[in-house]
Structures are given as structure tokens and as C-alpha cells.
Predict the 3D structure of the following.
Amino acid sequence: MPVRSSILATGSGPARTAPSRGGTAGSLARVIWLLDLDNTLVGRADAFAAWAASAVADAGGTDDDLAAIVAADEGGHGSKEALARVLVARLGWADDVPAAIQRFRAGILSRVRPYDGVLFSLDVLRGAGHPVAVVTNGTSAQQRGKIARCGIEEHVDAVVVSEEEGVAKPDPRLLEIALARLGAADAARRDVWMVGDAPHADVAAGRAAGTRTAWVSHGASWDGPDRPDVVAPTTREAIALAASPTHARPAGWSA
Ligand SMILES: [Mg+2]
């Protein structure tokens, strides 16, 4: 079964059998997959929202408090110190800023889950002989913690975390490190996909590195110029579209 059909046809449902490695690559070129973590493989925003609602309820806070806290998070891209100060002010916590940061990070870790079917999609890609790496911005402890909790490590060939490497997306060097980690430093960049939800980090990094780009929109519209190569509401659909015959090319084809 072609990669795209496998991803969409069998990515949900109770009985999942991962394809054997190297089974369905056929005559298509090897493709290298670099995937963001937060809100691409795992529901970080969902985890934060659930934790924040619980924290507000515990503190006897209001809907306004919850809205202010979620706004301060900026989808995970805001200043952690600023978010901690909002939490302390809104919820009357006695914590200092580092303790408050630790508290919401622990809350996210306790609730984060992979998106339904997405790890199976990675298994399909790897089963077809395509290397897969996670390329994520964040602290080593937090990002590795999410990966461990969600059992992602066994579904990928490499994990690259910005804090460990000293460089973060949109700097293309983080993607280059991932390619080197996969033994694919020399891969043609048109055979590399960067998949992620953040235009300013994931799509921008892919562009800077010369890869193709797939934006996981979560239903939003691309409102800038230079639309990514693929736009889809979920990661599974983004992968399926990127793996479709529209984007594949035969092995050895160099045009
Ligand atoms: Mg993300």
C-alpha cells in the first residue's frame, strides 16, 4: 500500500500493525522527515489549556483569569517568565518566578499526549525506509520529558533539542544538525520535509535550510505570502499530502 494510503487508511482504529522497515519504498526516492514536537506530534496547547483550567479552578479564579493565563502563554511561544508572573498575580501563588515556571511545566508534562494516529504515521514513513527526526525548540528536560511521556523515541530515528545544540529554529542549523544525526547531511534538500505548526519557526527554518515545508494549520489560514508546499489542518494529513504522488519523485530522478 502506498505511504499516503497507509497513513490515512490505517492511522486510526484499534488494530495497528506497524509496517516492516523497508517494505514499501518501491522505486521512490528516499525522503527525510523532520518534525516539530509541540502542537505537531503532541498536543502541547491542549495540555496547557487543561492544566491552566485546573490551576484556575484550584485557586478559585475566574474565566478572566484563565483567559489572561492562556493569552500570556502565547501558544507556548511567549516568555516563560512573563507567563509565570501572570500566574502568580492572577492565582495568588506564593511561588517565585522559577518555581512558577517549574509548576506549569510539570502541569504540561502530566497532561501532554501525542495526537491520535500520528505515531503510526511515523511508523509508516520509517517502514517505507524514510528516516524521521524530531526537531524541537525548548529546554532539554521539558522536551525530553514530553518525548518520554508520549513514547515517541521508539517511533523516530533521532531527536534534536535546541537547548542541547545551542541553536533554535528558525535557524536552519538545527535542521542541519538533525540531518547529520540521520546520516543524511548530503541529502538533496528537495528530498527533505520540515513539518510543523509554527510559521515563524518551522516553516521559516525549512525555507532557510532549503527543504520543502508542510504547515500544520490546526484550521487557521495562511495569511502571508509564500505559502508552504503543503498546508493541512492536522499533522497526519500534512504528512499524507507531503507523501502523496504529487510530491514524490522516482529514485535517481534529478530534475
Ligand atoms: Mg510547534
